Amino acid sequence: MDEVGPIPRCIFNESEYRIHLTAIDKTVKNINATNATDYMGVGSDKIWIAKGVSHKIVKVVRVLNEKRVEVGYNAPVSHSARVKITQRLTNMTPPVDVFNLLLRGYSYLAWVALEQSGTAAFMNPHAVDIIQRNLTELQPEGRSRSRFSVLGNNPRGHPTRSITLKKLSGNPARINLEYGVLYQPAVGNFPLVDALFFMESPRRTLVGLQTTTANAHHTQTSTVKLFKERVASYFNGWEELSRDLSWEIIYVQHADSTPISDWQKCNDSANLTEAENREIAAFWEEKVHQYQVTITAEM
């Protein structure tokens, strides 16, 4: 269902599943510079006008509007399809300004817009220039020295293309870590972050992107541990690569959200030992740098 959407015949029949998955991929590949703006409407309060193909990668969802009246809106048929559409739009040449277009008209499905545009914006050089100037550092108590984000020191080091991190249940082959690539998990419940990329200069850094509409997004030691395990499963030589690797997390928020203004804590987990909790909590406090930015269509 995460791949093809809530279609029973495709979920319970492997042949139908593969046929529909192929159809989704083909539809996404047909997105080009001449029809890209049609696809920007996915998830908005306007009719999606990509004729003849919308039934492959769109579904209708019912939501309550501001007057508490139930209305129908379009959304990508699945999380995987949403990731693929976003990647296609942001990887196109000439580039499409996803940063501005995806945030227009999202009144009731803001979470869809934020997840898509919030991470895709980091592949747009114009958006990155604006974002890095608007980053607010979040510091824990006792840390007196502030530090610019790597994007602030080297905005041209932002990712320029994206790669999907496939489901681990499918036993994907490990890949070589690349700088300048936005890694977007195919699953919607990836631990700790919604997407991540790596920068080589001015220091080797893992940058995690977490989109949220809440005014707080604390995590747990078990989540950090799971994230490390997942990343190690995706990249070749992770144990060596992770040595002396700096960590940054950027909390990306919508204009209607209450901005995160405090350090986001890493709380102990009952599923870990006392020693594990202590080690991961110390890592979080000492090695992780946090920043916040609010995304608006007017930026």
TrEMBL record:
Entries under Pfam families matching the protein: RHSP
- Highest taxon above the source species: Eukaryota
Domain (Retrotransposon hot spot protein,C-terminal) spans 1-138
Name used for this protein in its record: Retrotransposon hot spot (RHS) protein
Q: Which organism is it from?
A: Trypanosoma cruzi Dm28c
